[in-house]
């Protein structure tokens, strides 16, 4: 797979490799024979990562009645998928925050949307009975291709025009016309460069066209809906049930049909229920972004 754009490919080549901890964790979690002790040994040499995992495990987002006091306990309580997501998320966030430190204030809206989308994807996954950790990561990273494009096209890929707006059909066509590549394709290339799991790569590449995701269609549909709900959270006025349905029909007219074709549960009140859940959890879990982004 290639972006067929030299500026993007050159930018991806310039990206630093992810920390060795990430490589170790990906290796361990990909092996079905691995134990919790194997994963603990992969993480323990990285004390910053150990602290991050413990802080996330004890955050309001998880709401655990008893404090998780050790890495071993965190691995048992959270599971391999959640631990892998925390490790991947921290590595990706800190890498781009370092590279874009001169745009930190301008990108606050982008980071807020990324976190909200990750949280929404996690909520949707829980609602439909799937392991939620990898979906949080897919939502968090869904627009990271925009960060690579910001670096590849300085002064052209303008933050106010591209970084926080909902990427509807019109904006996606404009992106292709102006840059010859979409942020979704760039995002998938970015994750390939870092050797992320195929499910995440596919979710990023197809989150605007889930019907093209093949066996990973469900992942892409979850991220697409999460993206929509996250943008609704940033509306000037909190949308009610009627407004939510009207916006979904307007912005993603084929969504409900595709969702049901994927044999995913959808009731009359599903959209309102998911949005209400996100609205509450977003205020409780905002600290997660700061935890992941801290070195």
Automatic annotation (TrEMBL):
Q: Which InterPro entries match?
A: HD/PDEase_dom (IPR003607), HDOD (IPR013976), RNase_Y/CdgJ (IPR052340)
* Superkingdom classification of source: Bacteria
Under the heading Gene3D superfamilies, the entry gives: Hypothetical protein af1432
Q: Which residues form the signal peptide?
A: none
Q: Which residues form the HDOD domain?
A: 15-210
Q: Which PROSITE patterns match?
A: HDOD
* Database matches in PANTHER family: PTHR33525, RIBONUCLEASE Y
Name of protein: HDOD domain-containing protein
| Organism (species) | Desulfofustis limnaeus
